[in-house]
Design a protein that fits this description.
With about 210 residues, the protein is of the alpha/beta class. Helices cover about 50% and strands about 15% of the residues. The termini are far apart.
């Protein structure tokens, strides 16, 4: 009896390693092109995320894992995101000016369109393409926003870690997410390639 359990456990471990390895290869390939069964492999990586993150922390860089996973999920979500009708943008407050005059509420920073940072232009362009912008000081704000704002599509502007984190948190919700990674991350003075934002607006315009 114990031999059977041991053999079953061994084969389960081997199969898990094999499956997660294939999923990692698929996620890396997603950086350069479409991947067959992207959604399935994204679910596999979500399931094994914690042990994989531990391995990357020890032998590589966890940012690499988040980058691959965010890219894979973009591939998986692309067609569904294109079908969404009511979209919002979630962006980090670290992209705003250091002397930003805006104040914070339960749904994030309320931009005053002072022209000191990218958010003035982002709100103008977002409105033109049918998005509403929310500037967040933390991913914990996402839950409050979704309670107050009915949306079926969320465009995330963030570092790879936050994109992957929010995408994982939104799994199983009635909302489709798509991410635009920042060129430079950190606690302040972060940047996004604004042309990439405009390209995404054009790609998914209704």
């Amino acid at each position: 009896m114990y031999n059977i359990i041991g053999e079953a456990l061994f084969f389960l471990i081997v199969f898990s390693l094999f499956l997660s390895g294939i999923a990692l290869i698929a996620s890396r390939r997603s950086l350069k092109g479409n991947v067959y069964l992207a959604g399935f492999f994204a679910n596999v990586l979500d399931f094994f995320y914690l042990p994989l993150r531990h391995l990357f922390l020890k032998f590589s860089d966890t940012r690499v894992l988040d980058k691959w996973m965010a890219s894979l999920k973009n591939r998986a979500h692309k067609s569904d995101f294109a079908k969404t009708k009511k979209r919002i943008i979630l962006a980090p407050h670290c992209m705003r000016s250091l002397d930003c005059p805006a104040y914070s509420t339960q749904t994030g920073i309320q931009c005053k369109s002072c022209g000191k940072c990218v958010f003035t232009q982002l709100e103008k362009d977002a409105e033109k393409y049918g998005y509403k912008v929310f500037i967040l000081t933390g991913s914990s704000y996402v839950k409050n926003i979704l309670k107050m704002e009915a949306a079926d599509g969320i465009l995330l502007i963030a570092c790879y870690y936050e994109i992957n984190k929010v995408m994982r948190a939104l799994k199983g919700k009635n909302v489709v997410s798509y991410g635009i990674p920042m060129e430079r991350d950190g606690c302040f003075g972060t940047e996004v390639n604004y042309q990439k934002v405009l390209n995404v607006f054009e790609t998914f315009k209704n």
